[in-house]
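Why do we care about 3D structure at all? Because function follows from shape, and shape follows, mostly, from sequence. That is the central idea of this module. The next example makes it concrete: a single protein chain, its amino acid sequence, and then its structure expressed as tokens.
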Amino acid sequence: MIPLRRPEADDDLLRRCAERTGQIRKLGATSKAAQSQWRAGAEEKAGIRALLFRMAPGVGRCMYCLDSLGTDIDHFEPKSRRPLRTFCWHNHLLACSYCNSNQKRTEYPCDDFGQCLLIDPSVDDPFDHLMLLPASGKFKARTRKGRETLRVFGLNDRIELVSGRQDAYIRCCDVLIGWHQCLVGGDSGGAERRVHALHREPFADVLRALEDMARLPHASLLLGSDELAAALEAWSTTSRGTVSGGRLLTTVPGSRAGASAVLPSRTDG
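And the structure:
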């Protein structure tokens, strides 16, 4: 999981969703009414899905596990619990069918004050509640919300997720080092290709964990590599390899050896 920015829905979509909510209210605001309106709301669902893909990590990944393509519109607070939130834009996340139908289903654990104990990555920074040990591929819970999220989605129990993060750790380390070598060597095309590869990495939480580790004292000892630490330092300084507008940064700060390079800027695409 990584933090996600929710885009604004356009007025037409919000209006149509409000009309559907009004119909649910007229029908008694029951779970059955919510389900019937959701089945009938093909246009509304298409608009919601398009927005979710815009905010999804990688290339339309599940917002919970990051491993699979997001195929389902998940109601963060289930329709059965709060029918009138069925068409609420802020109650929708993109999920794979396994996370949605096999893991989360209708779970919505709450504390004694009624506050939800699942991480909503469009509201919460998951790393406030979870710490990823990237080489091991496993999360450690920092909070009760983190523990409940690990339990509900099986993020440490599904071998394909743990091994996927382990593999992503190797990929990210190799690509980061390669990116830095290209940057220092003046190979703008090679640097740009590696930026795109890192931003498309399915397990984006692995890269986030590496970025956080690089900010700690004695990062090279924690990372086990001076080369990786130098690459991550440059990656952080260059705003994750890009600048505003999606263009590659044209300069790279001096490496630990004092090297620097100037690159021609190219449009991200």
